[in-house]
TrEMBL record:
SMART domains: MR_MLE. Belongs to the mandelate racemase/muconate lactonizing enzyme family. Binds 1 Mg(2+) ion per subunit. Its cofactor is Mg(2+). Residues 145-242 form the Mandelate racemase/muconate lactonizing enzyme C-terminal domain. This is Dipeptide epimerase. Its EC number is 5.1.1.-. CDD domains: L-Ala-DL-Glu_epimerase.
């Protein structure tokens, strides 16, 4: 088949789903999923799906900004070759700076189209293979120690192989939380912590990280304010717990900067920060060259967005952690096909051509939407 397939129509939908209970991090609580779904249809009859989950306090976007900016992209991409993903992404970058969340939804849909056109699963299109078993952790929201202990015990009983804990307040409160969790679940199951920048300064973070050292913590995400990335190397050098950059590692330019600074040994890649799979793969390549370990995470994507992340997780051996738990927090599942959550946190990735996931028609039909054709 010729390597050309023009974009014929682009549809943009708002997707709202309540959570089972509020998901709370140091930056604030989340009560409802407020996502954007992008559907690209091509002249040759291929339909690609993409999703983003804008996070106002992290990527500075909302469901409303994404809905509007997405229409800018739909207009400039109409008629362009959907199989030339790099060229389409360049057009989006030239249209507006940043806005990486909505760019990631378009990038995802374009990759879905291209992988279907190539008649291979997305992970294979990305150069990956099924040579490892993917497992997800499960996250405990920040709250009172007793509730966090109860949640952690439930997740352990369910069989998840690792538990992620949201922190980011003061030393006394955060140590009390981890102490309670360890008393509830024992010392064997891995604990991962995420401060979401909440400890602010290097000295404060170093003090808390040292206080948490006795509790066998696997790694800590984003301990200090993202704009203090120049000081992250100090935290890494003085922390007994390995540091993983999250908010401070948005796209591949951020990754290259952090590597040059020897800032930390690990990155957390999220498609909503990178602008999509194209840039995410650039981070993977940079990290692989630097022999760094990687985690693939997400915001509040449904199984659609998490399916793309799971395909990415199969692309390289340096990707060793997956944080794909947010769809398990939804009260409803709007996705057809896609990844499956098996026992003990195992993630089963589809082997059909493309992404292998779509939003169910009934959710699209009732959603606020716009189509550019």
């Amino acid at each position: 088949m010729p390597n050309v397939d023009a974009i014929q129509t682009v549809s943009i939908y708002k997707l709202f789903v309540p959570l089972k209970e509020p998901f709370v991090i140091s930056l604030g609580p989340i009560y409802h999923v407020q996502n954007i779904v992008v559907v690209i249809k091509t002249k040759n009859g291929i339909t690609g799906f993409g999703e983003c989950s804008p996070y106002m306090t992290i990527n500075g976007e909302s469901v409303d900004t994404c809905f509007i900016v997405g229409q800018y992209f739909a207009k400039v991409l109409k008629g362009k070759n959907a199989l030339d993903i790099a060229a389409c992404c360049t057009i989006m970058d030239k249209t507006i700076y940043a806005n990486y969340s909505i760019k990631s939804a378009f990038d995802m849909a374009l990759h879905d189209v291209a992988a279907q056109h190539a008649n291979v699963p997305l992970y294979q299109f990305l150069g990956g293979k099924k040579d490892k078993i993917l497992t997800t952790d499960m996250t405990v929201s920040i709250g009172i120690p007793e509730k966090m202990q109860q949640d952690a015990m439930q997740f352990k009983a369910t069989g998840f192989p690792a538990i992620k804990v949201k922190l980011g307040e003061d030393l006394e409160s955060d140590v009390a939380r981890i102490k309670a969790i360890r008393e509830g679940i024992g010392s064997a199951i891995p604990l991962r912590i995420d401060a979401n920048q909440g400890w602010q300064t290097p000295d404060n973070a170093i003090a808390i990280l040292n206080a948490l050292a006795p509790y066998n913590i696997e790694h800590c995400e984003e301990p200090i304010a993202r704009w203090r990335f120049m000081e992250l190397s100090k935290v890494s050098a003085m922390s007994p717990i390995p540091i993983m950059a999250d908010e401070s590692c948005g796209d591949h330019h951020d990754a290259a900067r952090l590597i040059a600074l020897n800032a930390c040994p690990m990155f957390n890649i999220k498609l909503g920060k990178t602008g999509g799979l194209l840039n995410a793969m650039k981070i993977v390549q940079l990290a692989a060259t630097a022999n760094m370990h990687l985690q693939i995470g997400g915001f509040m994507e449904s199984r659609l967005g998490m399916t793309a992340s799971a395909h990415l997780a199969l692309s390289d051996g340096h990707i060793v952690h997956c944080d794909f738990d947010t769809p398990l927090m939804f009260t409803e599942d709007p996705v057809r096909d896609g990844i499956l959550y098996k026992e003990k946190g195992v993630i089963e990735v589809p082997d059909v051509p493309g992404l292998g996931a779509a939003i169910k028609d009934e959710y699209l039909e009732k959603a606020e939407q716009v189509t550019i054709e």
